[in-house]
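Q: Can I see a sequence and its folded structure?
A: Here is a first one.
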Amino acid sequence: MLRIASRKIREDGMSRPGVAEIMQEAGLTRGGFYKHFASREDLIAQAATAALPEGSAQIEDLAGRSEQGRRTGLIDTYLSKEHRDSPGIGCALVTLGAAAGRGDQSLKEAYEKWVRGYLTRFGGDGSEEARAEAMLTLSALVGATLLSRAVADPALADELLETVAQQLEQR
């Protein structure tokens, strides 16, 4: 149920997935829901927390590369059309950002943990300058992906991804 709810909140937002819809997709009856969760809000909070590490598998694949190779791989992966068009399996930092800002303390803490993890992974030598570059890169990646998903014009959506990727790769 958590995996299904996690995917659904990345695809449709935190307010959308209903208990009946999630239980049906899981092949379970609605009555069994309350054996696992106190409420829909409990499910959504747990699913949101679970969603954050799910999108990081692709990022972990970059671990063996050089610092520049990791950065280039991150930019190429994150700002790809495939990532933009597949929010259900993509990085939850994009889809849960606004919700985390309005969420309870536990969601904010889970979100912060993943932000800090990215900053550590891509913060280079740990210097102030490298950390600032990691913050800029993460902010640009998340922002460009969010904007690209939000606009109606496919050409503008593509241009956002391509332009931000080019600008980041030139740094």
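Q: Show me another, different protein.
A: A second, unrelated one:
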Amino acid sequence: MRNAAAWQHLQKRGMVQDFSWADSALRYEALYRSI
């Protein structure tokens, strides 16, 4: 990427994302309970 500041911002945004199953598990549980 040519713009170092933009690339650094993109990296930081990616690193603060929550990729754990905690939120997904709650959504799956709610879905299955609604069926």
